[in-house]
């Protein structure tokens, strides 16, 4: 037994499923998860001393590679002044100013401790502001584990949300309407059938959570126009895309202005941080400026703010990071594509900047139904073949990879080679 396997056996007796977040358990790919001991730059190191090239980067935050020195130093310096005060600090003001500069649609912002908190608060604000109860979300979009978002779009779900997880009440689910991603007509129908009842449409402007799925031309513009027509707020969940697809996120890249934005991951430099913000008139309903209650003992925590500030300042001051991420993304995708062609495979690659997914299906993937046509056992074998070759992928077909600038050209070549060998091994 490896040390990771031993730890997993013990963990299962103490933690539900042995993990503190379900996807880490490798259920979607089989086998036993690797327990990570440390990481530096582009590498992860496990408890058995094995080294892996990182292609998830903590599900997004480590865009500059692990233990990036300015972030590490900011945290070390901040610790000298104690860990938490539960009182306002200068760093929170600096953070708010930096976010509103980098993401201009955000005029006011509130810091929280996770992406889940950010999306839960954003819909409460949308409901408080509009006086409406329902929200529209998209099948396959993940917005954290808040009750309102754990809703599947089964066949009946176009009109009435069906709880996806025991513990979510039918009453809560009924207020969440769902539509297929990239389907404007479905959204229009929901808005027309629920006149003056929809507080907000929330979506990932580029989806990471059914694998990487891009908005088709006109989709985001169409949603923006439908929201305006029906008086619903448009919420971009940029927990994954924020500060990644551009310094101003997907909204900058696609030139669409949402009313509210939720953020997480990169914003905390690897610490547990989220944020939500948007138009000042909307954000002014948040307590204590307004009546919509939302709070947090550790919100705006000084250590977390220090890490996030160091990360965001670096991104704001170094536009070349984004140029390099585009190069890395393109190089990997081109390499993967050449291997597919060489092996006579027609699988689909979706890609934008430093996010991409190789889907084990010959169909184009523009929504969750299409993503579900993938050969999942094949993905499981491919995942383990990559792991064996020292490349750490997301342990599920329905995830995007998140690249960091720490990837060198040499590492990119190694990943491309491992991908080609792993495809052959998985298909043998
Ligand atoms: N929104 C999106 C788009 C996400 O990808 C995630 C997490 O992956 C969340 C919200 C929830 O964030 P957290 O896991 O920090 O609660």
TrEMBL record:
Keywords on record: Cytoplasm, Isomerase, Porphyrin biosynthesis, Pyridoxal phosphate
Major location category of this protein: cytoplasm
Keyword ATP-binding: no
Enzyme class of the recorded protein, top EC level: isomerase
Residue positions where N6-(pyridoxal phosphate)lysine is found in the record: 265
Xref: PROSITE patterns: AA_TRANSFER_CLASS_3
E.C. code: 5.4.3.8
GO molecular function terms noted in the UniProt entry: glutamate-1-semialdehyde 2,1-aminomutase activity
Keyword Isomerase carried by entry: yes
Classification via HAMAP family: HemL_aminotrans_3
Family classification: Belongs to the class-III pyridoxal-phosphate-dependent aminotransferase family. HemL subfamily.
Quaternary data: Homodimer.
Protein name: Glutamate-1-semialdehyde 2,1-aminomutase
Gene this protein is translated from: hemL
């Amino acid at each position: 037994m490896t040390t990771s396997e031993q730890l997993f056996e013990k963990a299962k007796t103490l933690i539900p499923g042995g993990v503190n977040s379900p996807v880490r358990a490798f259920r979607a790919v089989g086998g036993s998860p690797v327990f990570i001991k440390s990481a530096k730059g582009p590498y992860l190191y496990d408890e058995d001393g094995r080294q892996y090239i990182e292609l998830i980067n903590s599900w997004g935050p480590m865009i500059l590679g692990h233990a990036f020195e300015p972030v590490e130093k900011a945290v070390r310096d901040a610790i000298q002044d104690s860990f938490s005060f539960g009182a306002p600090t200068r760093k929170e003001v600096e953070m708010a100013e930096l976010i509103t500069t980098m993401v201009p649609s955000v005029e006011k912002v509130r810091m929280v401790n996770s992406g889940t908190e950010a999306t839960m608060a954003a819909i409460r604000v949308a409901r408080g502001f509009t006086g409406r109860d329902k929200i529209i979300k998209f099948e396959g979009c993940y917005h954290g584990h808040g009750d309102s978002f754990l809703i599947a779009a089964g066949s009946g779900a176009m009109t009435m949300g069906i709880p996806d997880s025991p513990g979510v009440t039918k009453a809560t689910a009924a207020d969440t309407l769902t539509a297929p991603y990239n389907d404007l007509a479905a959204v229009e129908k929901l808005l027309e059938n629920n006149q003056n009842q929809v507080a907000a449409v929330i979506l990932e402007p580029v989806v990471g959570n059914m694998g990487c799925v891009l908005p088709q031309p006109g989709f985001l513009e169409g949603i923006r126009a439908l929201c305006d027509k029906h008086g619903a707020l448009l919420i971009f969940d940029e927990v994954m895309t924020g500060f990644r697809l551009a310094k101003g996120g997907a909204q900058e890249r696609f030139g669409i202005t949402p009313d509210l934005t939720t953020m997480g991951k990169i914003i905390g430099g690897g610490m547990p941080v989220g944020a939500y913000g948007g138009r000042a008139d909307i954000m002014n309903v948040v307590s204590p400026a307004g009546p919509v209650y939302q709070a947090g003992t550790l919100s705006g925590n000084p250590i977390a703010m220090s890490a996030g500030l160091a990360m965001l300042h670096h991104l704001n001051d170094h536009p070349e990071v984004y140029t390099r991420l585009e190069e890395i993304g393109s190089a990997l995708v081109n390499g993967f594509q050449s291997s597919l062609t060489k092996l006579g495979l027609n699988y689909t690659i979706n890609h934008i900047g430093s996010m991409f997914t190789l889907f084990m299906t010959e169909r184009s993937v523009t929504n969750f139904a299409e993503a579900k046509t993938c050969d999942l056992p094949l993905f499981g074998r491919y995942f383990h073949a990559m792991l064996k070759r020292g490349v750490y992928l997301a342990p599920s077909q329905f995830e995007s990879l998140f690249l960091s600038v720490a990837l060198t050209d040499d590492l990119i070549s190694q990943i491309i080679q491992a991908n080609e060998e792993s495809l052959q091994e998985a298909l043998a």
